[in-house]
């Protein structure tokens, strides 16, 4: 969808979250409002492809855990995409982290 200053892109990913020593299935729908800062179409394309890669290859089928070596060591043989957070990986923490990384 195109809007006056950029585009709106909707996507989703499915992952698992470890909270309180339990694994929880998680489906997340994301809507990004992208405003280009460059007039260069190639630069815009590369940036958009990086965003798509992040959601489809890194977050999809990943496991979110709180930063703990024991958790990581236990689950690394089951899941290649383990993403550890400084705090419990609840929606607000994940959202703020993703906002910072994508900015």
Please tell me about this protein's structure.
The protein is α/β, with parallel strands linked by helices. It has one domain (2-102). The chain is built from three helices and five strands, in the order E-E-E-H-E-H-E-H. The protein has helices at 41-59, 69-75, 91-102; strands at 2-3, 6-19, 22-34, 63-66, 82-85. Strands 1, 2, 3, 4 and 5 form a five-stranded mixed β-sheet that branches. The longest helix has 19 residues, at 41-59. The protein is elongated. The model has no long low-confidence stretch (mean pLDDT 89).
Determine the mean pLDDT. 89
Report the count of strand segments. 5
Strand content: 35-45%
Helix fraction, binned, reads: 25-40%
Helix-strand sequence: EEEHEHEH
Low-confidence stretches: none
Count of individual helical segments: 3
The N- and C-terminal alpha carbons lie at a distance of 20 Å
Features:
103 residues, alpha/beta, 5-stranded mixed sheet, 36% strand
List the helices and strands and how they pair.
Blueprint: E1 2-3, E2 6-19, E3 22-34, H1 41-59, E4 63-66, H2 69-75, E5 82-85, H3 91-102
Parallel strand pairs: 2-4, 4-5
Antiparallel strand pairs: 1-2, 2-3
């Amino acid at each position: 969808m195109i809007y006056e200053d950029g585009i709106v892109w909707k996507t989703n990913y499915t992952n698992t979250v470890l909270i309180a020593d339990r694994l929880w299935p998680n489906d997340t729908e994301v809507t990004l409002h992208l405003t280009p800062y460059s007039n260069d179409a190639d630069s815009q394309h590369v940036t958009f492809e990086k965003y798509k890669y992040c959601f489809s290859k890194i977050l999809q089928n990943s496991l979110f855990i709180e930063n703990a070596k024991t958790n990581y060591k236990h689950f690394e043989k089951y899941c290649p995409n383990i993403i550890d957070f400084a705090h419990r990986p609840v929606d607000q923490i994940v959202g703020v982290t993703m906002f910072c990384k994508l900015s």
